[in-house]
Design a protein that fits this description.
Layout lengths: L13 H7 L8 H28 L2 H8 L6 H20 L4 H21 L19 H9 L6 H10 L9 E5 L8 H10 L3 E6 L2 E5 L2 H4 L1
Length: 216
């Protein structure tokens, strides 16, 4: 998660970011509700602007924006987050994500074929998600309390649930499962989010130190 409050204004202002990160408080509940309403409206208007950008942004400007994905890890994280926010948000409201994804991919492939290759194409888009429950998060938390290692994905899920108390731990031992697709950047971001320091004692092991003594 990008926590740089002072970046140039985008959808969010620096003040919006500070509020969402808990770095800014309001003295009155009404002010808090107004700030949240402004953020909701900015996000809504930004989503509507994407339709305009898709049809009017020049190929040159589009390339200059998205070529950052080659080397800028934070930019790639932002792209992933945009898709994840859409996936979670539509799901919570009972809107099938496939209703958003499939037409977008199909029309994009048709446009690319027409503009770049002078062709018409038939596009078959398959979207399928299989979810299998591995372990309740209470079990993951219990293992942490016993000082046992967890996988990076398990720790990430625990953090995303909320209420994870880093003060209760001096360190967290991580072990990489064979199916984990995490990389060093993912672990660095996870450690930074927890205000910890990452160490890599081995290829399949990592440690996040959460106290000053362990960071020396």
């Amino acid at each position: 998660m990008n926590t740089d409050v002072d970046r140039d204004r985008g959808v969010l202002t620096p003040a919006d970011r500070a509020y969402l990160l808990g770095e800014r408080e309001f003295g009155h509940e009404g002010s808090k509700r107004n700030a949240e309403a402004r953020i909701r409206d900015r996000v809504t208007q930004a989503v509507l602007d994407f339709d305009l950008l898709l049809h009017t942004l020049s190929a040159k400007d589009r390339r200059l924006i998205f070529e950052r994905a080659r080397e800028d890890g934070e930019f790639v994280d932002g792209l992933r987050a945009a898709i994840a926010l859409t996936y979670i948000g539509t799901g919570q409201c009972g809107v099938d994500f496939e209703r958003v994804l499939v037409p977008a991919v199909r029309s994009s492939e048709e446009a690319i074929a027409a503009v770049e290759r002078g062709e018409t194409v038939s596009v078959d888009v398959t979207f399928e998600v299989d979810v299998a429950v591995d372990e309740p998060l209470d079990g993951v938390e219990a293992r942490l309390e016993e000082g046992e290692p967890v996988t990076p994905r398990e720790l990430f899920s625990l953090v995303m649930r909320g209420g994870f108390d880093t003060a209760a731990h001096d360190r967290i031992d991580l072990v990489r499962a064979h199916e984990d697709d995490v990389d060093r950047e993912f672990l660095d971001r996870l450690a930074s989010y927890l205000d910890g320091t990452l160490r890599r004692p081995g290829e399949s092991r990592a440690v996040i130190d959460l106290n000053d003594e362990g960071r020396d």
